Amino acid sequence: MKFRGYGHDQSNAQVRDLLAERTLQHAQQLNKLGRRDEALAAVNQSLFWDPERRGAVDLRQSLLRKRARSRASEPEPGPEG
């Protein structure tokens, strides 16, 4: 995922808050579309801007649980590969 916001003053709390919120909203939309890997990348970016953003923390945990369940339900590869 391309990092956005580098043209802004990253030390500005308002800018960081806005970037975290907008990136979280993007992650939520990706999740609704079933694009979980992209949603996880976006939510991680939101957490870069605000590591304690509650909605982002919750969404990340949910996406990681879904990923783990999905991988656990995948059949083991057979002897042919």
The amount of beta strand, in percent, is: under 5%
Largest sheet: none
The helix/strand order is HHH
Number of helices: 3
Indicate the mean pLDDT. 87
Q: Which structural class fits the helix and strand makeup? A: mainly alpha
Please count the beta strands (DSSP E, at least 2 residues each). Answer: 0
User: Radius of gyration, Cα only, in angstroms?
Assistant: 16 Å
How far is the N terminus from the C terminus?
31 Å
Fraction of residues in H or I helices: 55-70%
Principal-axis shape: elongated
**Unreliable stretches:** none
In short:
The protein has about 80 residues and is mostly helical.
Describe this structure in words.
The chain is mainly alpha-helical. The protein has a domain at 13-68. It contains three helices and no strands. It has helices spanning 13-32, 36-49, 54-73. Helix 1 runs antiparallel to helix 2 and helix 1 packs parallel to helix 3. The longest helix has 20 residues, at 13-32.
